[in-house]
């Protein structure tokens, strides 16, 4: 079963798209991803926030359509042989934008231990989308 998180933001779809695809904006609310390039096939890497640099994330962009969707892999090569996929889908709504994030393949990280349990991803994505991104988009980043 995938982890699916849906949030509605009171901003235009273009603003949400920019937040999830512009590395300068992502650095504010999400992760610092210096080598992020919005190009099919591009690979990008990042670590969790802070100086520990314990969990390397390696991702590859599988496809995108501006203001509609972004799909990429999500792996932890230092901890697991598994590979998962993230699909970010944007939909215009009456008062803004609906973002649905679907994270599939999390069971493939079972070789990595408890830190990579599906429930941790569920909690993390709810926090990231429901608080960090929402504050960034709706409060101009004042409370990120």
TrEMBL record:
Activator of Hsp90 ATPase homologue 1/2-like C-terminal domain segment(s): 10-138
CDD domains in UniProt: SRPBCC_CalC_Aha1-like
Pfam families the UniProt entry points to: AHSA1
Family: Belongs to the AHA1 family.
Protein name: ATPase
